[in-house]
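Summary of Year 1 activities. Much of the first year was spent building the evaluation harness for sequence design. The harness presents a backbone, in tokenized form, and records the residue chosen at every position. We chose the following record to illustrate the format because it has been used consistently in internal testing since the harness was completed.
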């Protein structure tokens, strides 16, 4: 009987050990499929392709951007001392009027509800601008708007990269063109604090930076050779044009056909 009990204990211990070893493997395998499972669980089918939670979030983000940036643009035209800020405000009004129309049309087609007022944070930014005057107002305007556009720019690009819905893909394309135009105009004011934005981004980074080592002034790095086609092929397309704004500042061509219902 003692021998049987001892054998049973050994077998039980082996089973427990194998279970402990197998659990992490099972757990890891389960986690490896979580992203795809979550994507499918959050998506609904439409005639334009699956609509994910990230797709719906983009619609909300585009709508929210217009709800606070268009009034900010109006305020800039009314209050800014410099022509550069007024011109940036003009681009905000035109761009977000167009994007809002496109977002509302897509939302109606996909049956996605949209907000009708800015977030608390966005309302706070508008109050902050309203309380400022003169050069302080211009600096706040340039930096608040440039920081907001820079953050949404990468979010839009990610949705453009991953969406399976053709309506969202087109909206993301339109949005990136408009956001890049606004970034360009805001930077053209000469008031954007790039150091502050870089430090803020670095503070939230979790990965170590990568890339070549810092340049050494004592060593001259040879120029890299040009990237050129081989085999005698000829190409006829041209680099994208960068038209000029009304007051001589660079702008991005955002001319697009009217959205079709």
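For this record, the design step produced the sequence shown next.
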């Amino acid at each position: 009987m003692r021998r049987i009990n001892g054998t049973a204990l050994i077998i039980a211990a082996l089973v427990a050990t194998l279970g402990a070893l197998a659990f992490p493997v099972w757990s890891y395998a389960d986690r490896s499929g979580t992203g795809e499972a979550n994507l499918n669980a959050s998506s609904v089918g439409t005639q334009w392709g699956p609509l994910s939670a990230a797709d719906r979030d983009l619609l909300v983000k585009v709508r929210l951007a217009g709800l606070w940036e268009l009034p900010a643009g109006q305020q800039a035209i009314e209050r800014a001392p410099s022509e550069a800020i007024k011109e940036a405000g003009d681009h905000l009004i035109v761009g977000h009027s167009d994007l809002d129309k496109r977002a509302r049309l897509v939302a109606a087609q996909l049956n996605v509800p949209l907000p009708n007022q800015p977030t608390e944070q966005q309302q706070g930014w508008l109050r902050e601008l309203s309380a400022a005057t003169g050069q302080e107002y211009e600096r706040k305007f340039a930096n608040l708007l440039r920081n907001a556009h820079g953050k949404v720019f990468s979010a839009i690009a990610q949705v453009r990269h991953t969406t399976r819905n053709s309506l969202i893909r087109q909206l993301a394309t339109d949005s990136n063109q408009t956001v890049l135009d606004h970034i360009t105009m805001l930077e053209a004011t000469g008031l954007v604090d790039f150091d502050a934005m870089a430090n803020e981004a670095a503070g939230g980074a979790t990965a170590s930076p990568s890339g070549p080592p810092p340049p050494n002034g004592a060593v001259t790095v040879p120029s890299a050779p040009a990237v050129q086609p081989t085999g005698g092929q000829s190409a006829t397309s041209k680099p994208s044009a960068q038209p000029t704004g009304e007051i001589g500042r660079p702008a991005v061509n955002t001319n697009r056909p009217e959205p079709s219902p």
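The two ends are 83 Å apart (CA to CA). Quantitative recovery figures across the full test set are reported in Table 2.
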